[in-house]
Sequence to fold (105 residues):
Amino acid sequence: PLLVGIACIGWVTNHFTGIAFGGQNNISSAVGAFAVGIVANLYARFFGGNAFVVMITGILFQLPSGLGSGGLLNYVTLQTQGDSNSYLSGFQTALLLISVGIELT
Fold:
């Protein structure tokens, strides 16, 4: 229940930040990850647990939502409609995937 609660805190923060900063997936993911980090560290401080184990589940739930809403789903939609800009959108999505991979390492 604790991991699900912290993941929900990250999702809610990511969702409402995404509404406030439309089209800025990096900002909403950063704010969501910051909220998850604060709650996980508070848990570790007060209950003597491990912050990393609690933190990683909340952060991993944010990656597919940030990429799915802005990149991969948009690319597939444009590809099925026959849009000529769909290849450009695909390359932008690939660059976004590479940047997320670099940020995680």
